[in-house]
# Entry
Amino acid sequence: MASRSQMKRVEPKGPLSASEREVLATALERFRAPAARLDRYRYGLLVGFLGGVILGLSGFLVAHSLSQAPITDASLDKPPVSKAPAESLAAAASEEEEDPPLVPILRHLLPEPRGLLQFRGNAARNWYGEGPFPRHPRILWRYPKEPMCAISYVGHEPVEWCGTGWTGQPVVWERDDGVTEVIVGAFDGQVHFIDAETGRDLRPAFPTGDIIKGSVTLDPDGYPLLYFGSRDNYLRVLALDRDRPVELWRLDAHDFPLMGNDDWDGNPVVQDGVLYEGGENGTFFAIELNRDFDRRGRVVVQPRLLLAVPSWNDEFMALLGHRDFSIESSVALFGERAYFANSAGRVMGLDVSRARQGRAPLVFDFLAFDDIDATVVADGEGRLIVAAELERFHPVAHALGQLMLLDPSRPEDPVVWSLSAPPGPKEPDKGGIWSTPAIYDEMIYATTHAGEVWAVDRETGRVDFVDALGWHAWSSPVVVDGHLLVASCTGELRAYSLENPRAPRRAWSLTIPSGSCIESTPAVWKGQIFVGARDGYLYALGE
# Structure
């Protein structure tokens, strides 16, 4: 660990100066899209009364949508949609026979799932797992026998991708049958289902048409459903209550204008039966899942598109001079607001309280003037921790910095403090932060692309601790059971004791035998650590 005298001093910028605020205000005024007047569309409801007694209750009222909900827009310009909504939301063909009519069940009868169910643990993206944290770990198993690899194209060039990448955090699910299941999407283009104890397959892998970079999500309300996206252009819903994983529904990124890419790197989040996701096509989606069970007791969905909100408008494109507005960050929810960021550096907050009515007014709009791939994190007060990259070197990005605390209650002057994360010597044309910061106690923990670990006072932006980790630190820091866990691009997993959160103390270090880059975020659960690397494997660590 670097001594305080050896540390590079990182000074918080604090509130912007008057001149910086003027520059930023002028820039934001040019770029900010006011909350749009959202269109209203007709949609029909079929209301049926189911007689009889179900579990001692008489009758049940069931509403089924007869048409798609509106595709709405919270920016200035509403782009055309390349297909009719009904076509764009057509379910993928299934090998199963047609399901019989639905039998509704009471939601509270579903068991509450136990485990780490999504990237960063919860809808606010600020929970990281459950202890105990291993004190003397070793590698328990490596999965699978042969590396998980596939060919995917970068532009027109074929490239071999192996293992898991950014963000790549596994789900850890404590099933009711006593088995703990690890679920992860990988660069071989498949979702894998692994026994946490043995490292063996629990179910057949589910194949997609390209690599999977992001993290998967298990339904938070107990439905046996998995949500994830792939580089084959599809966002999917899988059923996990059959003999094998079965696709119930998919959404094609090409059904909407492409303002960046057609991947789905962001991690879906589900709240109150609505799935929220940002696509690399630049559009934010809200999808009502309509989860239920058929008469055979199998889970089914009838998704309905509620919102498709572009993260750009014509003025953005004209002034920035590019069409890269992809949403690679995961949507964070706080109260009735959804926050996300795109590759242009725009941080958007939508009021989704009326999403089912096709309305989501824009209530927060901020521009960092560089790519934001890290997920926005909401603290307990609803303030936003935002980490940006440094690639375009815009003058305003220099004034803002790359790690910042924003207060949405002050929309005209939201910057509480900010820090610069400059490039390192290994890659002088690229700086900033790709990993998603973690919060613990009164501190923020972040890792930078240049290769540093920071401990930052959440209220003041004062940097209390800096340590060297190594270039390309994209794996997001994790805090569990009073310990900070970080990973490096040299295959090192490093733990710090947070007995004093302002002065982390190195507790242990373990390097995987290949020394391969770890871009994925580790999952920590009850004494075990699960993490994938670029060598093709997923590792389990424990005592």
